[in-house]
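Why show two proteins at once? Because comparison is the fastest way to build intuition. When a single record is shown, students tend to memorize it. When two are placed side by side, the eye starts asking what differs. So, the first record is below.
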Amino acid sequence: MTSWTWDGPTVALAVALATGYGWGIARVRSRGLRWAVRRAAAWLAGIASLLLVTLGGLGAHAHTLLWVYTVQVLVLLLGTPVLLAYGRPLALAADALPERVAARVLNARAGLTLRLASNPAVGPLVVPVVLAVIFFSPVLTVTLEHSWAYYLLQFALVGIGLVIAIGLVGDGAERDSSFALAATVAIAFIELLFDAIPGIVLRLRTHLVATAYWTRVHHSGRLSALTDQQHAGAALWFIAEFADLPFLLIVIRRWIRVDQLDAVRIDRELDAVRIDRARDAPEIDRATAPSGAASAEVPEFTTPWWETDPTRLRGHPIQREQQD
């Protein structure tokens, strides 16, 4: 908790993110628009978490303890990007940038690649693949032995996680249907099983990953390399599974919100149909029409159409009572 280190590239990235976001807010306000304080707070919290896991104890011991390296990877992939995504960076860019550039941003957001990558049903499936590549390929050794690869991995994790997080929390202009989000929730339950695989495999391995490096780093008198790897596998297993729960709640919340919006839209469409039917109904001379003719030919449109449609009311208890 008291260990600190210096990470120049990450500090530069954090400064660039904060400066760019602040410039965007200033541009939006200069145009007479408002920007929610909670969005700016979420963006700053994401930057703070990025600095904490790279300059703090996790960054200081990431190259000497595998379980610390594992926790850092998980926070950069699953924690920091969610906070940044709640800052709505794409919406801010669309409002702050010049019209032509903003149009390009929106076109890129609507492109097939980003739409597929940020799809709530696809993005979470990328997580176990990314984790497997990091821990069971030469990526682990290269990032531990070369600082440039280590920094590149950090930036890549935040970028990949941000694309996934935007697909989960939305970008301020959600276009998902209620059915699509319901399918996403179902896929998320399946994805819970896949996220556990990398952690289980790492926990149960009896030989080391990146054997040469960890054998050299772990010396007598400290935590053994194999025990460290088992702790790393347990952390990967637990945190990856635990982190899925907030993601699942986020998608369920979006599902409820989109379902409510769909209900409002359907009600408005039905009201428009009701008004059009009432406007187009033939006028009846009530003075000459026989008793009950007006009500039979021109239904009252004070209730939804499905409650007055005789074809749908056939066999309904109220209809049978009226017929009797």
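Second record. Ask yourself what differs from the first in the token line.
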Amino acid sequence: IWSPSAVADFESIVLYLQLNWNDRIIYEFINKVDNHINLILEYHEIFPLINEDLQIRKSVISKQNTLYYREKLGKLEIVRLFDSRQDPNKLKF
């Protein structure tokens, strides 16, 4: 399950890549996200817990992008897909 914030994050990153890079880079990014999600689905506790109250875990996709997720009601919820070049104060869960 993707939160509305995660969907907006993903679309924003892909748009940035479309404007500044090429299709190969876009496909690589999408494949990395896909691979991380598949890994998380198989081993949901593989990445570190960074917010105990909200049970949010952090998976570094690349040095520019981090995926934040949690298990909620037996399902994986992608909370955010944050571009680390942004102001870290913008990262809200």
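One difference worth noting in the second protein: The helical segments are 4-20, 23-42.
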